[in-house]
């Protein structure tokens, strides 16, 4: 991916007022920076974006603002107009009707207010009725959802005790399997519970206040005592949770358990009751992403009293659905997760939240409406050609690698050859058959959509995966590499300015969108992607010497990024961000080659190269709140935008284009420049 998981989906604060979107879009391209701006060799990000950064305020309902967010804002406004038209048309049918009814129910705040917690009552009654550890296991199984995805979308968190992901087997690409992941925390990571720093201690105190407030707003007595039990249990879970770096290490995630292994490897949980309730009792083989955490959670099911588990389940049932509930609970949720945790001052207007919720539940249905109206067929052909050119450039780079042995080279080229590239939208849309969306039932619609998705995912188990199955809807401003599928998705919404301008120069388009296309291609060859072969099997296809060379170069890049320190007390984690930084570096290099090869005038000089690199820096133009940057550095695989822009310091052509000299801050001697692909 090029951005944080779910920047547009999961984060309702990621939207902004129209006026700001327009003024940002209208900012002229800054190819002739004012003298007050730093030299390119000292700070290339500010050299290109400084005037914009100084003139721009992050809108109060956003945690960040930049070219990507402005484009997402415009896209969202266009989509809402389509939904409103569908609502007004008595002939609206099928999925458009589902979208219209879902959105209308979510906008009907009076109805949501009047119903209060009533829609959650059946689940809360089930929690009240838990009278044994078997009943607890049954409830945990019946609430399991397909809500995580550690490899494609990096969705690593769920408030449920476990998360489920369904995809092809790590060693059997021809069949779908269930993957079980750790979960159950209300804060973003185990560090938030265990880190001794003053900042984290303060956040823990604020989280405690939040848990108490949610219990009170839900009308439950003894809110303080309940919150204490929830936090104790979550802290115990945090202690057994895997660290980020381990969760991102697919070798450590490569654990296969037979159904019969659970009783022995994870004693304490009534697994028969759990799997029966999860409708997985016929499934024989599972992939266990964080085995110690799964075993540890089962042990806690046995050792912690039922009352604590019941309060844990009550809190998380309400907390995770709070944005869909009454105003008091929705605001309480925003106050902790967005104002405190990410520094966003104001809640976005209702329509943006409603659109986010609709997209989460009916992704393809919304995307289909968007594409039909806003994605011209000629764009698809032109961008497909650009992708082809960059794939060819990458292929030529593989040929030119002097250090790579013929056998390794052969498999790398095979991988490139079998890559599926989706441009704009999927070949086949989801049907949503059997999903009931009712007018006036905002929360019920969300719950039914989650259940529908879960049933749809587990129905795939044992079947043969499709390489052209998409993992991101077409109206999202982002792009994604699916390492096991050996596939790329470029959603329609990102195929627009500032990434791709139909009237813009090739140099700018290759620097901006080309950099993104190259980035996604390169994910197939980053430290994680390179562990999968051309069939998507987790298999070491590298010769020993080649792997050592690759790892050494990767380590140099990790060291380069660990040296970036946005705050005195916090540095970028070079290991956690390595995949993304490798993809940036290889992607920009391939995009540069492709742009040079596509130039009609092969002798075009430094001016065209400057445009290419300025296009790249413009595509990263972004301002982010300090709190959001801190969460990002601790939990996200992507480095902040200014450091991603600094990728240029590893490309010789950038030095020539901007006459970068020794002594300037970004200058690297030729032998220090990292070259991987
Ligand atoms: Zn990425």
What does it look like?
The protein is mainly alpha-helical and 677 residues long. The chain contains 28 helices and 9 strands. The strands form 3 sheets. It has a 4-stranded mixed beta sheet. A 3-stranded mixed beta sheet has the order 6-8-7, covered by helices on one side. The chain has a two-stranded antiparallel ribbon with strand order 1-9. It is globular. Bound molecules: zinc ion. Residues 1-2, 519, 523, 580, 583 line the site of zinc ion (ZN).
What topology emerges from the helices and strands here?
Layout: H1 18-26, H2 44-55, E1 64-66, H3 67-88, H4 94-107, H5 109-115, H6 121-128, H7 133-142, E2 162-168, E3 176-182, H8 191-194, H9 198-217, H10 223-240, H11 244-247, E4 256-258, H12 261-265, H13 271-277, E5 285-288, H14 291-303, H15 306-321, H16 327-342, H17 350-361, H18 363-374, H19 377-400, H20 406-417, E6 420-424, H21 442-458, E7 480-482, E8 487-491, H22 506-523, H23 544-562, H24 578-598, H25 606-619, E9 622-624, H26 626-635, H27 641-645, H28 652-658
Parallel strand pairs: 3-5, 6-8
Antiparallel strand pairs: 1-9, 2-3, 4-5, 7-8
Helix pairs in contact: 1-3, 3-4, 4-17, 6-15, 7-13, 9-10, 9-16, 10-14, 10-15, 17-18, 19-20, 19-22, 19-24, 22-24, 22-25, 25-28
The chain binds zinc ion (ZN).
Kindly list the characteristics that best describe this protein.
4-stranded mixed sheet, 677 residues, mainly alpha, 9 strands, binds zinc ion, 6% strand, 28 helices
């Amino acid at each position: 991916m090029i951005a944080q998981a779910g920047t547009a989906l999961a984060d309702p604060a990621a939207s902004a007022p129209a006026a700001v979107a327009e003024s940002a879009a209208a900012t002229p391209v800054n190819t002739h920076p004012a003298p007050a701006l730093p030299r390119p060799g000292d700070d290339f990000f500010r050299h290109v974006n400084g005037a914009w950064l100084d003139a721009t305020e992050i809108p109060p309902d956003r945690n960040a603002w930049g070219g990507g967010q402005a484009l997402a804002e415009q896209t969202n406004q266009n989509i809402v107009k389509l939904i409103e038209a569908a609502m007004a048309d008595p002939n609206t049918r099928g999925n458009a009707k589902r979208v219209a009814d879902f959105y209308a129910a979510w906008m009907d705040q009076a109805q949501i207010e009047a119903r209060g917690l009533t829609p959650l009552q059946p689940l809360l009654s089930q929690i009240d009725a838990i009278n044994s550890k078997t009943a607890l296991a049954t409830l945990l199984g019946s609430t399991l959802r397909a809500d995580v995805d550690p490899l494609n979308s990096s969705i690593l968190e769920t408030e449920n005790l476990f998360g489920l992901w369904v995809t092809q087997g790590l060693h059997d690409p021809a069949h779908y399997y269930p993957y079980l992941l750790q979960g159950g925390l209300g804060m973003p990571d185990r560090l938030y519970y265990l880190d001794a720093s003053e900042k984290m201690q303060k956040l823990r105190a604020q989280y405690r206040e939040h848990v108490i407030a949610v219990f009170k707003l839900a009308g439950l007595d003894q809110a303080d005592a309940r919150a204490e039990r929830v936090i104790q249990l979550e802290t115990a879970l945090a202690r057994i949770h895997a660290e980020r770096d381990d969760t991102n290490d697919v070798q450590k995630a490569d654990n296969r358990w037979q159904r019969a292994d659970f009783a022995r490897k994870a004693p304490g949980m009534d697994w028969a009751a759990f799997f029966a309730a999860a409708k997985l009792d016929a499934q024989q083989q599972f992939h266990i992403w964080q085995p110690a955490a799964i075993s540890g959670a089962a042990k806690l099911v046995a050792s912690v009293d039922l009352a604590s588990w019941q309060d844990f389940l009550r809190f998380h049932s309400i907390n995770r659905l709070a944005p869909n509930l009454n105003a008091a609970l929705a605001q309480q949720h925003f106050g902790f997760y967005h104002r405190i945790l990410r520094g966003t001052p104001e809640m976005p207007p209702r329509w943006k939240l409603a659109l986010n919720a609709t997209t989460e539940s009916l992704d393809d249905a919304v995307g289909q409406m968007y594409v039909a109206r806003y994605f011209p067929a000629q764009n698809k052909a032109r961008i497909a050609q650009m992708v082809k050119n960059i794939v060819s450039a990458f292929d030529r780079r593989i040929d030119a690698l002097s250090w790579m042995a013929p056998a390794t080279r052969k498999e790398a080229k095979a991988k490139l050859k079998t890559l599926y590239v989706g441009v704009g939208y999927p070949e086949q849309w989801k049907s949503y058959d059997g999903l009931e969306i009712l007018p006036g039932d905002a929360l019920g619609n969300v719950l039914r959509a989650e259940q529908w998705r879960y049933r749809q995912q587990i129905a795939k188990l044992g079947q043969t995966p499709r390489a052209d199955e998409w993992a991101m809807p077409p109206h999202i401003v982002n792009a994604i590499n699916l390492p096991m599928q050996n596939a790329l998705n470029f959603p329609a919404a990102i195929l627009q300015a500032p990434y791709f301008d139909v009237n813009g120069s090739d140099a700018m388009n290759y620097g901006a969108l080309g950099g993104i296309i190259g980035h996604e291609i390169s994910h197939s060859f980053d430290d994680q992607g390179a562990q999968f072969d051309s069939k998507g099997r987790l298999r070491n296809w590298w010769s020993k010497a080649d792997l050592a060379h690759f790892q050494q170069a990767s380590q140099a890049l990790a060291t380069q990024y660990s040296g970036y320190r946005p705050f005195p007390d916090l540095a970028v984690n070079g290991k956690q961000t390595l995949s993304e930084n490798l993809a940036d570096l290889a992607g920009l290099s391939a995009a540069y080659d492709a742009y040079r090869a596509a130039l009609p005038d092969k002798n075009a000089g430094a001016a065209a190269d400057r445009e290419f690199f300025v296009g790249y820096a413009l595509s990263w133009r972004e301002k982010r709140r300090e709190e959001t940057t801190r969460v990002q550095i601790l939990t996200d695989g992507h480095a902040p935008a200014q450091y991603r822009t600094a990728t240029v310091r590893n490309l010789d052509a950038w030095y020539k284009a901007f006459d970068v000299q020794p002594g300037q801050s970004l200058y690297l001697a030729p032998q220090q420049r990292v070259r991987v692909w």
